[in-house]
Write a structure and sequence with these properties.
Two copies of one chain form a homodimer.
Chain A: H1 2-8, H2 12-20, H3 27-40, H4 46-53, E1 58-63, H5 69-82, E2 88-93, H6 98-110, E3 115-119, H7 125-133, E4 138-141, E5 151-154, H8 157-170, E6 176-180, H9 187-203, E7 212-214, H10 219-232, E8 238-241, H11 244-257, E9 266-268, H12 274-278, E10 285-287, H13 290-305, E11 314-316, E12 320-322
Parallel strand pairs in A: 1-2, 1-3, 3-4, 4-5, 5-11, 6-7, 6-8, 8-9
Antiparallel strand pairs in A: 10-12
Helix pairs in contact in A: 1-2, 1-3, 5-13, 6-7, 8-9, 10-11
The structure holds a DNA duplex.
Chain lengths: 331, 331
DNA sequence: CTGAAAGCGCTTACAG
DNA sequence: CTGAAAGCGCTTACAG
């Protein structure tokens, strides 16, 4: 920067202004500085800039895993707002571990991000303390039920599952199983299970233990779950899976075994990934605003970084049940 | 940090040492400092630390898009090495635009990352200059053909496609179409197309213009492409798609239209995503070391950051053709 | 094993 | 519209 200043015949303060507040520099001076920057191949050091100004252009985000397209969509929404605003994304994956999440929050806060996005409302106590005392805007995502550290944007996982069960029952299904995602360290999965259970109880439908299984996120786990459940519950007429990958794994398995979907068994999923509309029969599922979660979270963070208040601090983006062929009952 | 030092009754240098070189501090002193850190809730400021030490614990990575599981796998491999080594990931998405890539490289380099990962070997001239003069290790990924800025890790997209066409021809296919990903700003897609064309020519198979189509990354585009190609080329007996999503979109479309795969038409893909083994019939495809690309790229960067040389600088991880039911010819 | 001094490369008030 | 001085919160030699 000193070099640029010397070549342009100005002070380094002026170089700084050309970069950050170009309007405050005379056009002729600005030209000279810009030429000098070009000539030297000067790349500003924002580490120094951040230290001096006490603010960075970095937003930190923590997701359970990047290899799941639903979080990738949220990150996409996030960067679509962040990048034009001149912010960079510092990304971490917790692997669905609250302990790892707390460690990553510690490491990320050391980088002094301007804002922080985390997934879910369940965190280690240490993590909550860190987030509360960090002095930066924090947004929790993918859930709106519970006590937020600061802001939150998502939808009710509870209601989405509750409503799907009501819909399945309305279509004539009586014996409805649920394949749950691992609930350990995952408040969204717990809410979904709770929604299923409440609806079943409220509707007076059978509540046998064999009707609920926990399964990891994979096609294979969906296939295995549907096999086990069909074996254990002969009068099973619908399986509702906590995500589309499980549901599609179950669907493919039924195809392989000659089980007609929806003739012999209905299958419903959750997320509405692109694949859900492509399989045959099309998969009934819950459409989730996953891109919008990222976009709105970014918008809220940017607003607060700019010193403007955000209202509402808890933003429920809702969901939509998408009925396709996989749950159509004859008659 | 001053506060911590005062409470522990030491100088700030000692606090710094407790954090960075704990072995060099007497155990009793270390204890006192650690207690003080706990008491104050001190979170180190690595912005200041980075400026003073002139190195950051950040690695920057640029991928075309995060909403494609193949790049998500590479990022996963990257973070699996980076996180244990104490590095953070600064992530950007170029949207398959070389211009946006150059802009992002400028912005990311301002953050003074310790290393940089980019996708492909094709870049804007300005981007190449920036990367060469940045003074940090750079690794280009997903391709090993062409002139690398610094290091590269990937596989030969050309050979993979060439070999798949040879395999299809060996199975008795004569009229083989190719659905290409958009080649604009994508050297991997261009290499794949080139591999297809070379093989067709070398094998003396038909080279009609209607046998090559360009299609965006979606199930829908795969469906549309196979429809068009079947309409224009009546004796078509195989369609090779440049990625599995296109291939599976084509496969589902054939199912909907009652076209038997592989009886009436064979379909092959590229990537070997988990879905490829799940669909019925299973999809013949090319297995790509996408996780390993990220892991090896991270390893190479870490090695160079530690001042150790990396050899070979261009790492070809190979590929594997996975034959499933979608290309089995009767007889 | 511990500390005083200098400095990393910028930006922030403040002046003119 | 432009600049001199101070300082952001650490680490790096160097000394003892």
């Amino acid at each position: 920067m000193e070099d640029v200043a010397r070549i342009a015949g100005v002070s380094s303060i002026t170089v700084s202004r050309v970069l950050n507040q170009p309007g405050k520099v005379a056009e002729e001076t600005r030209e000279r500085v810009l030429n000098a920057i070009e000539a030297v191949g000067y790349v500003p050091n924002s580490v120094a800039g951040s230290l001096a100004s006490r603010r960075t252009s970095v937003i930190a985000a923590l997701v359970p895993t990047i290899t799941n397209s639903i979080f990738a969509d949220t990150i996409h929404g996030l960067t679509d707002v962040l990048t034009p605003a001149g912010y960079q994304l510092l990304l971490g994956a917790t692997g669905y571990s609250l302990e790892r999440e707390a460690q990553l929050i510690t490491a990320l806060l050391a980088q002094r991000p301007a804002g922080l996005l985390v997934t879910g409302l369940a965190h280690a106590e240490r993590a909550r303390t860190l987030m509360k005392s960090a002095g930066i805007p924090v947004v929790e995502t993918w859930n709106v039920q519970g006590e937020a550290v600061d802001m939150a944007v998502g939808f009710s996982n509870y209601r989405a599952c509750y409503d799907m069960v009501v819909r399945l029952a309305g279509n004539g299904h009586r014996c409805i199983g649920f394949v749950c995602a691992p609930t350990e360290a995952n408040d969204r999965a717990r809410e979904r299970l709770r929604g299923y259970r409440s609806a079943i109880r409220d509707l007076g439908l059978p509540e046998r233990a064999e009707l609920v299984r926990e399964a990891k996120f994979s096609f294979h786990a969906g296939a295995e779950s549907v096999n086990r459940m069909r074996a254990e519950v002969p009068d099973l007429d619908a399986v509702f899976c906590a995500n589309d990958i499980l549901a599609i794994g179950a669907l493919f398995e039924c195809q392989r075994r000659g089980v007609d979907v929806p003739g012999d068994l209905s299958i419903a999923g959750f997320d509405d990934v692109e694949l859900a509309s492509q399989v045959n029969p099309g998969l009934t599922t819950v459409r989730i605003p996953r891109y919008e979660i990222g976009r709105e979270a970014a918008r809220m963070l940017m607003q607060r970084v700019d010193g403007r208040p955000v209202s509402p601090g808890i933003l429920d983006l809702g969901f939509e049940i998408v009925e396709r062929q996989s749950t159509v009952r004859p008659g």
